[in-house]
Input
Amino acid sequence: MEFTQDSWINLPRSDRFNKILELGLLIAAGEGLGKSPVGDYAFHKSIPHNFLSTYGRAKSVFCGGRAVRDQEMLNFIAGITPNLFEINQRIETPIDLADRTRPWLEQSSNINLAGLHGYEILAQVGTENTMKEFCLNHRTRRIRIKKGEWYYVPAILSAMNVNWAYLEDDELSKNDAIMMSVPFFSTFEIPSNYDALMEECCDKDIPVMLDFCWSLLHRAFNLDISYSCIEVCSYTIGKFFPLEQIRLGFRLVRPDYLPDFDKMYTELRLSSWLTSELIGAFPPSYIVDKYFSLQHSWKDRLGLEPTNCVMSSILPDDALWWNQHRIHGELYPQNQFSMVSLYENEDLIQEHCSWIQEGIN
Output
């Protein structure tokens, strides 16, 4: 079933359903009073402090995949004082980014990328730009994506008038190219056919772009990226650090993927410097390590089943209306629940919801 606003008044209300509504109302009221963190898009911003606004906001509090507003990160970010001119003049900044990022990934306890040594590490404007760059590089090919991919991807492809199709539509051909998020957007898991798919792409000379935006939130991101078909991996860190709109991150690219002049004009020294500062202060496992136990505590409190992505849990059948993909249609799983607002408001919840010690009826 696809749940919509129209179905709201007729939904069966289990104890679990009502407890989630209570949490949504509490957090929405907190946002209206400036006591709860909010995201960075217009639809995240604080609402007027009145009943209708709070009630409306409560229905969407648990949607969206933004970074948790972690207080230790916010404190560190507040103390960053860049000298913009010095950063602009420092020609070594791209080298610093690569030199700091590679060991950051290699020494991680939750990330294992076999074949990382075969890639250069370059600055990135954002995942969208890396996707468009890949499409332009392969504009004579048909772009293939999995059903349930990040909903913005088919919108980008259609807007660019790119020839594209879902992987599930037909067999791969030599004129195809693949873009895929790993972990996959809909499930936050590594696709079970990943290795077989990469082997087929190698056999048919099909170029591949991978999007790793969810990997830093995954408990065990073990992936072989040594396959010769993989040309570029996008690594935004906007789901990890609460600075989404600054578009921080980097790309893993094959040495011959971009011409030298392209590398020279996309050094992005400010974002490269800031990325280096942030990853120097927080290991890749920081979010997973900090919120793993809290994610699992909600299994006892509400029966939310943890996934390997610390920001998501699986809803039981009597609470599916609260799934974060409900407005995106049947291509997306209808049982994914965003944990971000629960993590951010743990103290508020502890103060006002005594039932969390006992769980649901």
